[in-house]
Design a protein that fits this description.
Radius of gyration: 58 Å
Strand order of the largest sheet: 123-122-121-134-133-132-131-130
Number of strands: 139
């Protein structure tokens, strides 16, 4: 062996070169290849080339080569030594051999080597020998002489039984055991010691014993042979399968493969090869059911590719002149939130939902739906972002910021005074008053204060307070030389005070007293102003403090955040006595419709209430009543769905509480067996089956060897028997003895199985299979997965419990397995919640990383001078309380929290004690001094003024540079008006004011008025209704738009506008008084807007060019209006001159004065009348009455204004009536008309009050207006009642009757002819008279309390509790359906109790609970009887199908539906009506008479026989249960029944009006009352409406997790379908041809529990057709024939 190495060679320029080295392990050394053969060769060449060089130069050239060769030899030597070492190591490795490891022993939890010794206890010594532990007792220990066996201690010499066959003895700590001998021959008594007298197997197993060899292999001892078999796994029909860990059989991976496509578990899809198959992927299996096509409402449907059912042509939609194609979507113009779509000629619309992103979003942009956050909409007004928003508080300024409102206090400008006061209604202080030490003072008010024991006299001047100290008088007494003299003292409250002493009385902190000349003088102590806006008056304190805030009557701590109850959307903060509030910013919500409760500002997603339990939004939980459902709370609604069931690991599991996956027993042959049970085969008595962990094994019975020479095989037996009778075995407890070969379980131990063999009993314990779950509970014998055993506690499946190991976790027990997850915590209702056990809690606080108890005080970590308090999760911080100081401007030294009086801090300026400095607020005019922490400021004195009206100058000192007059300052030389009302003009000159009276200018008008407060009069125009119009102006009065008024010399003249036409084709608009000419052109001249001209020779005609709103100018021409010349004598009237229109008066007109107020005056024009009002003559044109005669017959008398006629013409008849003649109106005899000079005046006749004798009636005769009294003999008889003459009443929506002179006269509304299509029939909408075309409903239904929906669509309410004819063939007599009603428990309300169907001589009764009798005999369903009478049970509905095409559906409680083919149109009668397509005559009784009330109609169809002996019935009467139930019940019923008008049924509203069913639903819920019965009544009404929707071709998906849930036996293979196949196949009808069963297939679909595709229904299970029992028909008929009448299908023998 040879290998190469790279060895380090010489180093050159910092690099190490490697030499290749060949190593030979066998001998030899390492021979390096010369590193420089080429180099050496080069050197040789160079030596040859330079052979002629001198000898010294040659020696110098060879020296480096010699040195290099020397180093190489040293390195080779070193490598040889290393090679020797490597060769030694290799030899040692090749000499190694593999030996087994020494044996070890295991003891005390560890391994011991061979020969090791140890002591497991004080009495035993162990040694490891040959890998086994040898343990012997220690010698010489007397207390260790006992023995231990299987955890039991035995004394020395004690004998005990180790089991039934072994006897042991303890002797000197050693145990010796012996086996008891067994007797020969058969065992006489049962026991576990000796072998039984039966063949066994080589492994020691008894005959018939079963054991589990491997986890998935089960073996059985049969006749001495061991037979083993693998698991019995069902065949899988899936794309991919796998075997889960711990399981024996493979299962399908979730999902299905069908027609080359992969589908998820639970997916629904249509078959790609056959669109008429609706398929679903359930448990990895594909189940397909054929689709049923609804009736097509069009005559020529088309088949579209990829669709199963033919549909109408996808026509478009047309509405309001707009057309849309099929499938097109659009937004309605008036409502952008409404999205509509055209679907096959029908328009379907829905509302778009918007999410709320900000608290006050702006309204949607034009043409959009959802609000936006680029503005605000608040209090009904729109605001742009950044625009101010009114907050209701004048002292705060709010603005809109991206959909939210932010507020801040109004900034106040700086004031030029030091102590500005506050005015009511104003936010900022002003200098019109003073605020000093917390008190308000008016301008120029003087007041006294006491500061530090000194008397101070102050005054308020324009917002500044100036104070002067007053000297106190000296003590009035001295000590004379003559001897002592007592000074006067003051006594107050039994206390003495010396003269001049000041004190505060006890209990009166705001009062200070002093003793003056022996008299106590007390006065209120005035406080300095608080430097905050909301100070608090502490109890017992005199002056307000800024340590807390008083806001709206409530006190808040400093630093506290709070929200007012009446304004929850504002959050406020108290900071040093000032409260600042702002609007709350609400977090975004995750649901579409958040809610806001009372007192709650921000909306939040609603919680869910289910079974009186509250769950938070987003929480997942188990249904409180049904642990098989998993629910989640979303937007206030609990969405529940069944839990997913894991696949059972056995072939025949038992049905568990939710799923059929319990392998602790077997469901086989329709029966259930415990695990380990032996049972006979259901069909083969010679086979014996055994249940083992949900799997069933059936084997042929092995016959025991017969002890007799000639055994006999009995009929029906499997094994031969000896003729002699075998003896039985006694049972424990004295029960009946067990028979020979009978298996039984002891009553005290059901987990053992015993066998009786000829008097001998042998027992064995039932084996338990491994539980397929992690935490099975203890079953009766074996662990069971229908619950959990977790931490020593048993739990039911579906039960939730707190985790015992992990805090804050909640665990769920589900089918033997426990899963835990963190507990969901509700958001804390406080800002600083403490860490609770699991969730944040408000009983403490966590503030800045530290935890505090509630009510605990602590220092603020951020501000050491603040003291914080934790209270209920809220932290309020305020400054630490400091001792009150007696100074007004204390100074807080650096590093201290509380101020002191050793210095002053005044408006940001620090002053030492006794220091005098300029006033920071007024440094020019005031000086301040710091004295013991208080600053006292005084103004500098001002010189006296030398003028009478000086003005304030610098430092408010009076100066004579300007004047101060009436509170206003005027500059020198300025002229201004004098005092109000003085009519003076004043002038300021060097501080002096001089005034002179004003002179008024002359006015050119005769009417003058002086306004209040004015000096000079002005010209007055005309005053009309409080509004003044200038002289010469004209206007249109608002109450008469086609009139015109003009003001002339105080006289107002109003008259209608007289129009003039200046063009050939004038046009007149809706609001035009006169016609207009389309352009401003007259006689070829164009006029501009605003120009006027005279169109003809008449100067009273004028035309004006006006600009119209549409922009085109037009001409409007009319006659000028002349003013009334009031009070002008006729002699003074001047006619108009040339080119003038109106006359004038030569003298002044009369004026309307106070003396003439209210008087009238006739002007020269007889068409006007004038009245004096508001000092103005108001003249109006008289209105002329309308004349009835032609214009050619009219004339105007001299001196009159209006035209008259000689006679009147009646418009209606053309009659001519002479003047003064009267007549009656032909259409109304109570109106009388009279002719007055061509004008017709009509007046209604007034009738006197009429009082008739008792029993008489008031009637009105023809041609007369007033009523008269009529004798009672002339009344009418109707429906057995007396109706007074003249009374009118309505029979129904189309017919009304009246009593006229003893005769009943009726009239009906006539409806237009109606032509319906082939698949349509006339039907009514609620409240209408005339029918319209709808898809024909060939059914009648009775439901609820009860309501009858007739064949023709009328809804009746009838509450009789007898038997009635519901529907009957009144012409052919083919069938009759009767109903028997029963009292519902409330007054006058009933419901359907049972249904009887009469078919010839056969009577079928449908009873409560789905029971059925035929001719009095109870029958089992399904029932098939000729002539093709087929009764079946579909879910909860009993369906009867009869030969004439009759179908009766009965839900077993109160709802019945009768369906008849169209061939019976017009032949039906009974409570369901006559089926003639006209709903108005459905109230016909048996005699064919139309009855007036529903109660009378229902009672007329009562059948003679009652419901039974001893059970009386009552007739129906008119009942309104909602009136008796009250308003609250009606409101709740309306709310719950509103689901009929909601989205789940919206697709049905267009074909079946919901209003009648809604009214019936409200009626039922009022009658049912509160409680669980109301739910049943609601579901009854909803199911009735859904049934009619399905008839019309619409299947609403309306059921919910808590609304009318229908439970199906999923463990038996059923699934619920709202529109399942109407003709389910069963084992009894699969032989009947489909055409013979078509009678009950006319319905489009039936809701209920259905079998999946490929399975048939048998004995309430879904099974394959091959598993059906054989059905043999009697006689020689073919299999498709049916038994004769009287015969029933027989089962197998």
């Amino acid at each position: 062996m040879m290998f190469n190495l790279l060895l380090p060679a010489t180093k050159s320029r910092g690099k190490t070169n490697l030499l290749p080295l060949t190593v030979q392990p066998e001998g030899g050394g390492a021979v390096p290849e010369p590193r420089g053969r080429a180099d050496i060769h080069n050197y040789q060449l160079q030596a040859q080339a330079h052979s002629s060089a001198p000898a010294g130069a040659t020696q110098e050239r060879w020296r480096p080569l010699e040195e290099w060769l020397g180093r190489l030899e040293a390195e080779v030597t070193e490598l040889r030594e290393q090679n020797k070492d490597l060769q030694g190591r290799v030899r040692r490795l090749e000499s190694c051999e593999c030996h087994p490891a020494p044996p070890q022993c295991w003891g005390l939890g560890r391994g011991w080597p061979e020969g090791a010794r140890w002591e497991p206890d004080a009495c035993t010594a162990c040694v490891c020998q040959d890998g086994a532990a040898r343990c012997v007792p220690k010698p010489g220990l007397s207390h260790c002489g006992g023995c231990s066996h299987n955890g039991q201690a035995y004394g020395n010499g004690e004998t005990f039984a180790a089991d039934a066959c072994t006897t042991c003895r303890c002797l000197e700590a050693a145990i010796t055991c012996t086996q008891e001998p067994c007797p020969r021959g058969p065992c006489l008594e049962p026991g576990a010691c000796c072998p039984r007298c039966e063949p066994g197997c080589p492994g020691g197993q008894r005959d018939g014993e079963t054991w589990q060899l491997e986890p998935c292999v089960i073996c059985t001892c049969q006749a001495g042979t061991v037979r083993c078999q693998g698991p019995s796994c069902s065949e899988l029909n899936c794309l991919e399968s796998y075997t889960p860990p711990g399981e024996c059989c493979p299962i399908c991976r979730p999902g299905c493969e069908y027609e080359g496509q992969l589908y998820e578990e639970g997916a629904n899809f249509l078959s790609s090869s056959n669109p008429c198959l609706q398929c679903s992927c359930l448990r990895s299996l594909v189940r397909c059911v054929p689709m049923k096509c609804p009736p097509i409402p069009c005559p020529e449907p088309v088949q579209r590719p990829g669709h199963c059912c033919p549909t109408c042509q996808a026509q478009g939609c047309t509405e309001g002149g707009s057309h849309w194609e099929h499938g097109q979507e659009w937004t309605t113009p008036g409502d952008p939130c409404r999205i509509c779509r055209c679907l096959e000629g029908h328009i379907r619309c829905h509302q778009r939902e918007c999410a709320s992103l900000c608290p006050y979003p702006a309204r949607p942009l034009p043409g959009t739906c959802c609000p936006v956050c680029d503005g605000c909409f608040l209090n009904g007004r729109e605001y742009r972002s950044g625009e101010p928003v009114g907050s209701g508080d004048p002292c705060s300024h709010c603005r809109c910021v991206n959909g939210s409102v932010q507020c801040e206090p109004v900034p106040c400008p700086p004031t030029p005074c030091r102590h500005p006061g506050r005015m009511p209604g104003k936010c900022c202080p002003v200098c019109d008053s003073c605020e000093y030490q917390g008190h308000q003072y008016q301008n120029q008010e003087t007041f006294r204060l006491q500061e530090s024991g000194r008397c101070v006299h102050c005054s308020c001047q324009a917002g500044d307070v100036s104070c002067e100290e007053q000297e106190c008088p000296g003590a009035p007494c001295t000590l004379p030389d003559s001897g002592p003299q007592l000074c006067p003292v003051c006594v107050l409250g039994e206390e003495e005070f010396a003269e001049g002493v000041q004190w505060e009385p006890d209990g009166q902190p705001c009062t200070t007293c002093s003793c003056q000349a022996g008299v106590p003088v007390c006065r209120a102590l005035l406080c300095s102003p608080a430097p905050c806006q909301h100070p608090t008056q502490p109890p017992g304190a005199c002056c307000p403090s800024c340590d807390s805030c008083t806001y709206h009557g409530q006190v808040y701590a400093n630093g506290q955040n709070f929200t007012e109850a009446d304004s929850p959307c504002h959050t406020c903060h108290c900071e040093d006595g000032t409260v600042m509030c702002s609007l709350v910013n609400c977090p975004p919500t995750t649901c579409a419709r958040p809610q806001s409760g009372p007192g709650q500002c921000c909306p939040r997603c609603p919680d869910c209430i289910l079974e009186q339990q509250v769950f938070m939004d987003g929480e997942s939980f188990s249904h409180p009543r049904d642990p098989c459902q998993e629910c989640q709370c979303r937007e206030g609604h609990a969405h529940c769905q069944p839990r997913a069931c894991r696949r059972a690991s056995c072939a025949h599991p038992l049905p568990g509480p939710c799923c059929q996956n319990n392998c602790n027993g077997c469901a086989f042959g329709g029966k259930e067996y415990p695990s380990g049970a032996d049972f006979p085969h259901p069909s083969d008595p010679c086979r014996l089956c055994r249940c083992l962990g949900g799997n069933v094994q059936c084997l042929a019975r092995r016959c025991p060897p017969s002890p007799c020479p000639e055994p006999v095989l009995q009929p029906g037996e499997c094994c031969p028997r000896c003729p002699a009778t075998r003896s039985g075995c006694p049972r424990p407890g004295g029960a009946v003895p067990a028979r020979h070969q009978e298996h039984f379980s002891p009553p005290h131990d059901p987990c053992r199985r015993c066998l009786c063999l000829d008097g001998s009993v042998s027992c064995q314990r039932l084996p338990c299979p491994p539980a397929p779950c992690a935490h099975p509970r203890r079953g009766p014998c074996c662990p069971s997965c229908d619950g959990c055993l977790y931490q020593g506690k048993e739990l039911a499946s579906g039960e939730r419990f707190p985790s015992p190991t992990a805090r804050c976790h909640v665990c769920l027990c589900w089918e033997g397995s426990v899963s835990c997850e963190p507990r969901t915590c509700a958001p804390a209702q406080c800002p600083f919640p403490a860490r609770g056990d699991c969730c944040p809690t408000c009983d403490g606080c966590e503030y800045l990383g530290e935890s505090y108890l509630s009510s605990q005080e602590f220092l603020d970590p951020q501000e050491p001078c603040n003291l914080c308090t934790c209270l209920g999760g809220f932290v309020t911080c305020g400054r630490q309380p400091c001792e009150p100081l007696g100074c007004s401007h204390p100074l807080t030294p650096s590093g201290h929290c509380c101020p002191t009086c050793q210095g002053c801090l005044y408006h940001g300026v620090i002053a030492a004690p006794g220091e005098t400095l300029p006033d920071p607020l007024d440094p020019t005019c005031s000086l301040c001094t710091c004295q013991e922490g208080s600053v006292h400021c005084q103004k500098k004195p001002c010189p006296a003024a030398v003028c009478p009206h000086p003005s304030p100058g610098p430092c408010f000192c009076p100066v004579c540079h300007s004047c101060l007059s009436q509170g206003r300052e005027h500059q020198d030389g300025e002229e201004f008006e004098g005092p109000a009302g003085s009519c003076e003009k004043c002038r300021c000159q060097a501080g002096q004011v001089s005034c002179v009276r004003l002179q008024c200018p002359p006015l050119p008008c005769p009417l003058q008025v002086t306004e209040p407060g004015s000096c000079c009069p002005r010209c007055r125009g005309c005053l009309v209704h409080g509004e003044e119009h200038p002289e010469g102006s004209s206007w249109e009065p608002p109450d008469s738009p086609c009139s015109s008024c003009v003001c002339h010399e105080g006289v107002v003249t109003c008259a209608r506008i007289q129009c003039v036409t200046s063009c050939a084709r004038p046009r007149q608009g809706l609001r035009d008084c006169c016609p207009r000419c389309s352009d401003c052109e007259h006689e070829s001249r164009k006029y501009e807007p605003g120009e006027s001209f005279q169109p003809g020779a008449d100067p009273c005609e004028v035309c004006i060019c006006e600009l119209q709103p549409e922009g085109t100018p037009s001409l409007r021409c009319r006659r000028r209006q002349c003013p009334s010349l009031v009070g002008c004598p006729a002699s003074q009237l001047l006619p108009p001159g040339p080119q003038h229109c109106c006359p004038t008066c030569a003298q002044a007109l009369s004026h309307c004065t106070e003396r003439l107020r209210g008087s009238e005056l006739a002007p020269p024009d007889p068409c006007y009348s004038c009245q004096c009002q508001d000092l103005t003559w108001l003249c109006s044109h008289r209105a002329c009455p309308e004349l009835s005669c032609p214009p050619s017959e009219r004339h105007t008398p001299p001196g009159s204004c209006c035209a008259v006629c000689q006679e009147c013409v009646v418009e209606a008849t053309g009659w001519r009536v002479a003047d003064g003649e009267s007549w009656r109106d032909p259409s109304n005899t109570c109106i009388t008309c009279t002719c007055h000079r061509g004008h017709v005046e009509c007046h209604p006749e007034e009738c006197q009050a009429l009082s008739c004798p008792q029993g008489w009636a008031k009637v009105r005769e023809a041609g007369r207006c007033c009523e008269r009294c009529q004798a009672p003999a002339q009344s009418c008889a109707h429906q057995g009642q007396q109706v007074v003459s003249g009374e009118r009443w309505a029979v129904d929506a189309c017919t009304s009757c009246s009593c006229v002179a003893g005769t009943v006269r009726c009239q009906s509304q006539r409806c237009p002819p109606l032509s319906c299509g082939r698949d349509e029939a006339p039907a009514l909408s609620p409240g209408s008279c005339c029918p319209r075309c709808l898809p024909r409903p060939a059914s009648c239904m009775a439901f609820g309390d009860p309501h009858y929906h007739t064949f023709d669509g009328r809804l009746l309410h009838f509450q009789g509790s007898c038997s009635y004819v519901l529907a009957k063939d009144c012409h052919g007599g083919d069938f009759s359906v009767h109903v028997t009603n029963d009292d519902r428990g409330r007054s006058g309300v009933s419901w359907t109790q049972e249904v009887t169907v009469l078919l010839g001589d056969v009577a079928v009764r449908l009873l409560q609970g789905g029971a059925v009798t035929v001719d009095g005999r109870p029958v089992a369903l399904p029932l098939l009887q000729e002539p093709l009478l087929y009764v079946e049970l579909r879910g909860r509905t009993v369906m009867l199908h009869a030969q004439p095409g009759l179908q009766v559906l009965w839900d077993g409680q109160s709802r019945v539906e009768v369906r008849v083919p169209g061939s019976y149109r017009g032949q039906m009668c009974g409570l369901c009506g006559n089926f003639n397509g006209f709903a108005q005559d459905d109230l016909r009784g048996p005699e064919g008479l139309l009855l007036s009330t529903e109660a009378a109609f229902g009672n007329s169809w009562q059948v003679p026989e009652g419901p039974g002996p001893g059970r009386p019935c009552s007739k129906g009467r008119e009942v309104d249960p909602c009136r008796a139930a009250g308003y609250r019940a009606r409101r709740e019923a309306n709310a719950r029944c509103g689901v009929l008008k909601s989205s789940p049924f919206s697709r049905c509203h267009a074909v079946v009006p919901p209003e009648p069913f809604f009214a019936a639903c409200v009626y039922d819920l009022c009658a049912c009352g509160p409680g669980s019965s109301a739910d049943a009544c609601l579901c009854d009404a909803l199911e009735a409406y859904a049934s009619h929707c399905r008839h019309a071709g619409v299947t609403p998906a309306w059921r919910g997790p808590t609304l009318c849930v229908v439970g199906c036996a999923l463990d038996r293979g059923f699934v619920f379908d709202e529109c399942g196949p109407p003709c389910p196949r069963t084992c009894f009808n699969q032989h009947v041809p489909p055409r013979e069963l078509a009678a009950h297939c006319v319905r489009p679909c039936v809701p209920g529990c259905q079998c999946p595709a490929g399975l048939v229904e048998h004995e309430a299970h879904c099974i394959s057709p091959e598993a059906c029992p054989p059905v043999l028909l009697i006689g020689d008929q073919p299999p498709s024939a049916l038994p004769r009448p009287g015969q029933e299908p027989q089962g197998p023998p």
